[in-house]
């Protein structure tokens, strides 16, 4: 608590907002990667099955 009291209220709000924004970006990028990987996997399996 002593460390938190060193910062002003507006500074704490800004830091919290930035942390939440970074977390949202991380989750969004992770979901995009997972979605693209699954689409690519399904597409490649269809192409392989189509060749044989």
Which key phrases capture this entry?
52 residues; 90% helix; mainly alpha
Ordered list of secondary-structure elements with their pairings:
Blueprint: H1 2-5, H2 9-51
Determine the mean pLDDT. Answer: 91
Poorly predicted runs = none
| CA-based shape | rod-shaped
> What distance lies between the first and last C-alpha atoms, to the nearest angstrom?
66 Å
Explain how this protein is built.
With 52 residues, this protein is mostly helical. The chain has one domain (2-51). The chain has helices at 2-5, 9-51. The chain is rod-shaped. The protein starts with a helix and ends with a helix.
Question: Nutshell version of this structure?
Answer:
This protein is mostly helical. It has helices at 2-5, 9-51. It has one domain.
């Amino acid at each position: 608590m002593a460390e938190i009291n060193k910062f002003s209220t507006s500074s704490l709000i800004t830091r919290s907002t930035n942390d939440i924004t970074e977390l949202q970006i991380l989750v969004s990028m992770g979901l995009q990667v997972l979605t693209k990987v699954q689409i690519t996997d399904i597409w490649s399996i269809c192409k392989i099955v189509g060749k044989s």
